[in-house]
Design a protein that fits this description.
- The chain has 16 helices and 8 strands.
- The protein is mainly α.
- It folds into 3 domains: about 100 residues, no CATH class; about 100 residues, DNA polymerase, domain 1, CATH 1.10.150; about 190 residues, Orthogonal Bundle (hpI Integrase, Chain A).
- The longest helix is centred in the last third of the chain and has 26 residues.
- It starts with a strand and ends with a helix.
């Protein structure tokens, strides 16, 4: 008896998304077995007569290609069985087809979870968070329904990007989600979860996101000096946050995470030597007199005697990388709230955040005539192009005065 294949929409099962699975029916000796191709369709988008999706299906072209591939794989296996004159059942043919490596057995959501767990175990908490945020975004896009890798097509990605854009997210946030999802698929290929040929991002360019310049908020030098010389007393709830900002600015735009991890053992007289958390680069900074005064206060105040850290951000209960990561997020929010309050007291329009100290450091140096090369080294940037992102948007009044004075 001959063997036959037919693509069908299995109406006997309704999935969480309200659609039905698309199956390949393998028939041998009047006995049938069924194999899912990892894709779905609603009844209204399926042509029962042809056994193919209608053009109204949102993934019509990609689904046609997937069906052709699966049908070709199955036909090739059956042809091989016939050529070898091997007697097998429909069930055995199905199992041989399932053995083909082109279909992912793990859902996207489950692979996200396993990868996030791997990163957390490696203490790469920030990296794990980026994948968690991306997963959450994708699950919201899918109305909380998990899905297979085979459903991720160029059309899927276009609709996901449109969904993100419709939520009025910043371009760099959309870029982060798409780039992180692409990275996850790259890891899925390396792990053999999907075939090496699988690449739904092929032909999709991120160039438009790289062209978008995020507006960098920086304070001009006179405003920085006003901020540095505010009369904030240790009894004020703003005192620590005021010091964090001043310390960051005077220590070459130090990131808040590095400020939190700073230990007394990193201080060597009037020199600070520390390793940046993000890049692993070592910095050697000669301390300004105001920085020495800030350190003197925290050494004398002894606010956290059981912890080796300079600032009262971590304490003895924050031992794991995960607990420290969560603590930094919590304190950073408090920090930004405090900076907002200080900005309102000063009457400045620029929204103050922890990043403003770093941007202001770069811009004040640039406005003072310091070369981009020196600023690059001070900030630990990999290239001058990255430094230009921080320094390209000079204070409008300074830029205008420079041009006008040159013209007259």
């Amino acid at each position: 008896m001959s063997s036959s294949l037919k693509v069908i929409l299995f109406k006997g099962k309704i999935l969480n998304n309200g659609e039905h699975p698309i199956l390949i029916r393998v028939t041998k000796d009047r006995k049938s077995s069924y194999l899912s191709i990892g894709a779905t369709s609603s009844l209204k988008n399926w042509d029962v007569r042809t056994g193919l999706p209608k053009k109204s299906h949102p993934d019509f072209k990609e689904l046609l290609l997937l069906i052709d591939i699966k049908r070709a794989e199955a036909s090739s296996l059956i042809f091989g069985i016939k050529t070898a004159s091997t007697v097998v059942s429909a069930h055995e043919i199905k199992n041989k087809i399932k053995g083909a490596p082109s279909t992912a057995s793990q859902t996207v959501g489950k692979f996200f979870d396993s990868f996030i767990s791997r990163m957390e175990n490696a203490n790469r908490i920030g990296y794990a968070d980026a994948f968690q945020f991306t997963k959450n975004s994708l699950m919201n896009f899918r109305n909380k329904h998990d899905f297979n890798f085979s459903e991720v097509t160029p059309s899927f990605l276009v609709r996901y990007e449109e969904y993100l854009d419709g939520r009025n997210l910043a371009s760099n946030t959309i870029f982060l989600y798409l780039r992180t999802f692409k990275t996850l698929i790259n890891y899925a290929r390396k792990d053999g979860v999907v075939s090496k040929e699988y690449d739904p991002f092929e032909g999709i360019s991120f160039a438009k996101f790289r062209r978008v310049k995020t507006r960098k908020r920086a304070l001009p030098k006179e405003t920085i000096l006003k901020f540095m010389n505010l009369d904030v007393q240790p009894s004020s709830h703003l005192y620590n946050y005021w010091n964090y900002f001043r310390f960051s600015y005077l220590c070459w735009g130090m990131n808040f995470i590095d400020t939190a991890y700073l230990k007394w053992s990193d201080i060597h007289g009037d020199t600070l030597v520390y390793t940046r958390q993000k890049t692993g680069d070592e910095f050697n900074i000669m301390l300004a007199p105001q920085v020495i005064e800030i350190l003197k206060y925290y050494r004398t105040a002894n606010l956290n005697p059981l912890a080796p850290y300079v600032f009262p951000i971590f304490n003895e209960i924050h031992e794991s990388a995960k607990s420290k990561s969560y603590r930094i997020k919590k304190v950073r929010k408090q920090y930004n709230d405090a900076l907002k309050e200080i900005g309102e007291l000063m009457g400045i329009s620029t929204k103050l955040t922890s990043y403003v100290a770093r941007h202001s450091f770069a811009n004040v140096l640039r406005q003072s005539g310091v070369s981009t090369t020196i600023i690059k080294d001070a900030m630990g940037h990999e290239s001058e192009a990255m430094t230009e992102v921080y320094t390209s948007q000079l204070d409008a009044s300074i830029l205008g005065n420079t041009i006008n004075n040159s013209l007259l």
